[in-house]
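I have a small job for you when you get a moment. Would you make up a two-line entry for one protein for me to read? No commentary is needed, just the two lines. Write everything out right here, beneath this request.
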Amino acid sequence: MEDKRNYCPIHKKRLVITKTRFGPRGDCPEIGCTVVLWYNDETALPADKETRKARHEVHILFDPLWQTGKFKRTKLYKMLSSYMRLKPKKTHIGMFTKEQCEKAIEFVNSLHHGTDLDRIHY
């Protein structure tokens, strides 16, 4: 069975792959569709412009929490996984829907504001 990552989730059409200086990129052939997939990221799924923007916003807020050493990266992803009620293998920002990104931002904001997250089992 072929990888579903090779198809536009909206139009169900096979992505057209082009080589770019950033690596292979898959685009939906449907005119006006903004679905894109960067093939150099194994943990990403095709997404439209709005979802890609939301994923980027999550990374901007989430990544500094582990990059600065405030949290261990693995621990932070485990906390996010529990908060979002996702299996760890599905807790990759590049796989998130726009709605999941909103929930991830809610999680990050709760950490920034010192909200008690003890109810989460890590």
User: Anything to note?
Assistant: The mean pLDDT is 89.
